[in-house]
Write a structure and sequence with these properties.
The structure is a single chain. With 500 residues, the protein is of the alpha/beta class. The protein folds into 2 domains: 273 residues, Aldehyde Dehydrogenase, Chain A, domain 1 (3-Layer(aba) Sandwich), CATH 3.40.605.10; 185 residues, Aldehyde Dehydrogenase, Chain A, domain 2 (3-Layer(aba) Sandwich), CATH 3.40.309.10. The structure holds 2-aminohexanedioic acid. The site of 2-aminohexanedioic acid (UN1) has 10 residues, from loops.
Length: 500
C-alpha cells in the first residue's frame, strides 16, 4: 500500500524529487467533496537530515552569488507564477477549498512578493555612518545566516510560503520548507517554479510531513539557524521554547482574534461589506479573519439586521463554482472545533442570530461545510469573544464609546489586526494610537494586507518579528558592522577622541 504511486507527492532534496525514506504517505483530500487528490509523504528526521546536508552544500555557493543575480532568479519566479496564475489558483481551490477568486488573489500575493524581493537583490540596504575617529570609515551590511527552516500553514499555502522563502533566498540563505500536509500540491508547484526559474539545486528543499515529526526535527536540528513559523500559538510557543534553548532565531506568526469597531457615525453599508468579506472570506480560516464586531449600541440593531440579511444571501459550496461565496472548511477536525465553539457560545448565553450548524451540501455530502454564523449580545468575557475559532463565526459585542471599544479590542490575548469604521478624524487618530494590534485598518475590514508592509502582530500573535515587507529581511539576515581604519595609527575608540 505504501509503495510509491503516480499521484504521490515527493520531497525535493538537493534538486531531486525523492520519496520519503520511511515510505509513509497519507491522503490529500479535497475538502469540498471528500475526493482523494493524491498522497502526501509523511517524512521523518532522516529526510530532514538529508535536506539539511543538501542545503549546507548549496549554501557555500549561493551565499557568494551576487544578490542582484539572486534577484534575477526571483524575477523569473514571479514571471512563471504570473504565467500560471490561473492553473495555480485552481489547484489551490481544489486542495484547500477557498473560492477561486480568492485563490487568484493569493497567487497574486506570491507574484507581488517575487517581484518585490527580486528588487531587493539590488537594494538589501545597509548603512554608512561617520566614525568618531579621523581617517576611519564605518558601515553595516546585511549578511546571510545559513540554512533556514520554514514551516507554513494550509490556509495561505503559497502566499505565506512566498513571504518567507523569497526574502530568505534573496538574502543568500538556503531553505528547508515543510508545508502543511493539507496542501502538498501547492508546495510542489511552487518548488517546480523555483527549479524552472534556475534556482541551483539544494537552495530550496521540500520536506513533507507532520509538525510532530518533521517540524520537530527541523527545530531540533543544529544545522538550521532560523525557524520561521506560521500556525497556532500553542505550536509556536513550543517552537520558541525548543529553538530558544538552542539560541536559534525563531520568527512566529500565530493566532488572531481580530475585531472591526463600528462607531455610531460609521458608514454602515460599507462596514457591512467589510465585515462579511473579513469574516466569511476563506470561510473565516484566516489569521486576519474578522471574528468580533465591537459595535456602538446606538447602531447595534441596524448593523445586526443588515448583516443578517446579507448572510442569508451567501452561497456555500465548491469554491470552483463561480457563484459560490463561501467554500468548505479544511477538514473534519476543524469543523468539529467550529461547531464546539458555537455550542459554547449558546451555553454562555450569547444570542445566535443566524447560522450555527454544519451544512450538508446536497451534491457533496462528503464535503465539510459550516453555515456563516452570527452571534449577538456577546460580552467580552465570553470564550467566543476571546479564543480563536478559525471559522465563519462572528460575535457582535455592544459598547457605549470609542474608549470602551478600544479597551475591548485590546483585552484579548492576541494582537494581529483591527478595523475601525468612523467618519471622525479625531477618533481615527486616537484609534491608530491606542489600538494594540500589528495591523490597523481605517474604514476597512481586518484582512487585505499588502506584501510590501510588515505583517504580524503583538502579544499571543507574534514574538516581535514580521513577515513580508522590508521587515522580513530582518528575520533572514545578520547585521555585520565594519570599521575601516586608514589612518595607519592605532586609534582607540572612546579614548583617542578629542574631548570638548
Ligand atoms: C493569514 O491569514 O494567515 O491580509 C494571512 C490578509 C492576507 C494574508 C492573510 N493578505 O488577509
Amino acid at each position: 500500500m505504501n509503495s510509491i504511486q503516480m499521484k504521490d507527492c515527493r520531497n525535493y532534496i538537493g534538486g531531486q524529487w525523492v520519496p520519503p525514506v520511511g515510505g509513509q504517505f497519507r491522503d490529500n483530500v479535497n475538502p469540498a467533496n471528500g475526493k482523494v487528490l493524491g498522497r502526501v509523504p509523511l517524512s521523518t528526521a532522516e529526510d530532514v537530515n538529508a535536506a539539511v546536508e543538501a542545503a549546507h552544500t548549496a549554501y557555500k555557493k549561493w551565499r557568494l552569488v551576487p544578490a542582484p543575480q539572486r534577484g534575477e532568479i526571483l524575477y523569473r519566479v514571479g514571471t512563471l507564477l504570473k504565467e500560471r496564475k490561473e492553473d495555480l489558483a485552481r489547484i489551490l481551490t481544489l486542495e484547500m477549498g477557498k473560492v477561486l477568486e480568492e485563490s487568484r488573489g493569493e497567487v497574486q500575493e506570491a507574484i507581488d512578493m517575487s517581484f518585490y524581493m527580486a528588487g531587493e537583490g539590488r537594494r538589501l540596504f545597509g548603512q554608512t555612518t561617520p566614525s568618531e575617529l579621523p581617517n576611519k570609515m564605518a558601515m553595516s551590511v546585511r549578511e546571510s545566516i545559513g540554512v533556514v527552516g520554514l514551516i507554513t500553514p494550509w490556509n495561505f499555502p503559497i502566499a505565506i510560503a512566498s513571504w518567507k522563502s523569497l526574502p530568505a533566498l534573496v538574502a543568500g540563505n538556503t531553505v528547508i520548507w515543510k508545508p502543511a500536509t493539507e496542501t502538498p500540491l501547492m508546495a510542489q508547484e511552487f518548488v517546480k517554479i523555483y527549479e524552472e526559474a534556475g534556482l541551483p539545486a539544494g537552495c530550496v528543499n521540500l520536506v513533507y510531513g507532520s509538525g510532530t515529526e518533521v517540524g520537530d526535527a527541523m527545530v531540533g536540528h543544529p544545522g538550521i539557524r532560523v525557524i520561521s513559523f506560521t500556525g497556532s500559538t500553542e505550536v509556536g510557543r513550543s517552537i520558541a521554547i525548543k529553538g530558544g534553548t538552542m539560541l536559534k532565531r525563531v520568527s512566529l506568526e500565530m493566532g488572531g482574534k481580530n475585531a472591526v469597531l463600528v462607531m455610531e457615525d460609521a458608514n454602515l453599508p460599507l462596514a457591512v461589506d467589510a465585515i462579511l468579506w473579513g469574516a466569511y472570506g476563506t470561510s473565516g480560516q484566516r489569521c486576519t479573519a474578522t471574528s468580533r464586531v465591537i459595535v456602538h449600541r446606538a447602531v447595534q440593531q441596524d448593523l445586526e439586521e443588515m448583516l443578517t440579511e446579507r448572510i442569508r444571501q451567501l452561497t456555500l459550496g465548491d469554491g470552483l463554482a463561480e457563484d459560490v461565496k463561501v467554500g468548505p472548511i479544511i477538514n473534519g477536525t476543524s469543523l468539529d472545533k467550529i461547531d464546539s465553539y458555537v455550542q459554547i457560545g449558546k451555553q454562555e448565553g450569547a444570542r445566535l442570530v443566524i447560522g450555527g450548524h454544519r451544512y450538508i451540501h446536497p451534491d457533496f455530502p462528503a464535503g465539510h461545510y459550516y453555515e456563516p454564523t452570527l452571534f449577538s449580545d456577546v460580552t467580552s468575557k465570553m470564550r467566543i469573544a476571546e479564543e480563536e475559532i478559525f471559522g465563519p463565526v462572528i460575535s457582535l459585542i455592544p459598547v457605549d464609546s470609542l474608549e470602551e471599544a478600544i479597551a475591548v479590542n485590546n483585552q484579548v490575548s492576541y494582537g494581529l489586526s483591527t478595523g475601525i469604521f468612523t467618519q471622525d478624524v479625531n477618533r481615527v487618530f486616537t484609534a491608530i494610537r491606542d489600538i494594540d494590534t500589528g495591523i490597523v485598518y481605517i474604514n476597512a475590514g481586518t484582512t487585505g494586507a499588502e506584501i510590501h508592509l510588515p505583517f504580524g502582530g503583538s502579544k499571543g500573535t507574534g514574538n516581535g518579528h514580521r513577515d513580508s515587507g522590508q521587515a522580513a529581511l530582518d528575520v533572514f539576515t545578520e547585521w555585520k558592522a565594519i570599521y575601516v581604519d586608514y589612518s595607519g595609527t592605532l586609534q582607540r575608540a572612546q579614548i583617542d577622541v578629542a574631548q570638548s
